[in-house]
Amino acid sequence: xxxxxxxxxxxxxxxxxxxxxxxxxxxxxxxxxxxxxxxxxxxxxxxxxxxxxxxxxxxxxxxxxxxxxxxxxxxxxxxxxxxxxxxxxxxxxxxxxxxxxxxxxxxxxxxxxxxxxxxxxxxxxxxxxxxxxxxxxxxxxxxxxxxxxxxxxxxxxxxxxxxxxxxxxxxxxxxxxxxxxxxxxxxxxxxxxxxxxxxxxxxxxxxxxxxxxxxxxxxxxxxxxxxxxxxxxxxxxxx
Length: 239
Description:
By secondary structure, this protein is an alpha+beta fold. The chain is 33% helix and 28% strand. The protein is globular.
């Protein structure tokens, strides 16, 4: 079964940041989507995030999910090595890194690969489900129930333990999930989910058109503090 997908994207520097260090990618023709968030406070975060989406925009996919996952993983490993070299030669050894979350789909199966705290959500019915797990020190406490989601978001979770360009060997997490015909998927940087909670996101995703939903989510976020860059990608199988 071959399903056509619709998608939409938005990216904004937010209300307080001078530059936008995020980058987004929509390739619904090959069922590949991504959000990358350049590491704030480091050198050339925009270079890092753009390097990721540029490389993913060029990767050749054949529609076989297993093969395509391997190719995307190889691309991200290559970008990791290139960013490490760039940091050594152009940035006096400073970190040039970015989070990444990328989703691929074949029929009713999806795969997400990620490093850092950019997230993938699945909206099914009236429920928002977080598919990814943040790579930061607080996530272990959240998983164990030691802290609540609200406490985790209020904590200093800007510290991430994985990033493309952040370590000599890139360690990506990979998760497989099922795709329903009415599901809507949201990939986003932390600048979005730190401003809008699950119920707010779910409400806006009830919009029929993804383009309008993406516009409204960004508008709602910018109406608040929007302390960080804000980026999102929406994807939904066409019925």
